[in-house]
Amino acid sequence: MYSDKLALFPKTILTQRLQLRPITRADENDIFEYASNPEVARYMSWSAHRTLADTEEFLKYIDQVESEKLQIDRGIVWRENNKMVGTIAFVSIDLALRVVELGYCLSNQYWGRGIIVEAANAMIDAAVRTLDIHRIEAECEIDNFKSERVMQKLGMEQEGVMRKRLPVHGVYCDAKLYAKVVG
Predict the structure, then answer these.
(1) Which of 24-33, 90-99, 141-150, 165-174 has the lowest mean pLDDT?
(2) Which of 5, 36, 87, 151 supports an S-S bond with 49, CB 3.0-4.6 Å?
(3) Has residue 180 been placed in a domain?
(4) What whole-number distance in Å separates Cα of residue 145 and Cα of residue 180?
(5) For 90-140, how does the pLDDT look when each residue is reduced to its tens digit (9 = 90+)?
(6) Is residue 13 situated within a structural domain?
(7) For residue 176, what are the contacts with CB-CB under 8 A and spacing of at least 6?
(8) Mind listing the pLDDT tens digit for each residue in 68-87?
(9) Quick one: pLDDT at residue 3?
């Protein structure tokens, strides 16, 4: 039943500037290009990719969680040049409670263009329409002000601070929890 409902979520979503689509092995070089940048990995649970083998492990992980219906992951493709510039996902899904948690990563070469807000709004709209989602949550490391600003632009409100919540490079950090009721 769970997987039947998740199958309703669109494989590809088009926005004015973006294509959100499943991540494939062919995206390996684009992902490595931004995931190898320490600035991009600064607030992530993972360290900057040092080799393509690190990116291959990430792709294996995506394959696993997608096949087990634990997440919905999409690559963010900049339509102007057909380049994958980031990823966006529902990193946790609870259809019984009608809640998803949003996560995202973007190449620093594309920061400041509203790309994550555009991609997240499209993902949220699709989740409300196809999965009957009631609530969207997201969290960020307490000093990740750029990610916090994205959540605010999405109309999310801060609901609190969770102590030692997020593993960032092997250390558990405090996290700000943001959420938005959508239905």
Answers:
(1) 165-174
(2) 36
(3) no
(4) 18
(5) 999 999 999 999 999 999 999 999 999 999 999 999 999 999 999 999 999
(6) yes
(7) 139, 140, 142, 148, 158, 160, 161, 162
(8) 888 999 999 999 999 999 99
(9) 66
| Residue 18, beta-bridge partner list | 78
Instruction: Work out how many domains the chain is built from and give that number.
Output: 1
Q: Is residue 143 part of a domain?
A: no
Residue 81 lies in a domain: yes
β-strands 99-106, 135-141: how paired? parallel
CATH, residue 107:
3.40.630.30
Q: Is 7 exposed, middle or buried (0-12, 13-18, 19+ CB in 10 A)?
A: exposed
Cβ neighbours of 151 (radius 10 Å): 26
Distance between CA atoms of 123 and 89, rounded to whole angstroms?
Answer: 8
Return the closest-CA partner of residue 88 out of 161, 138, 37, 17. 138
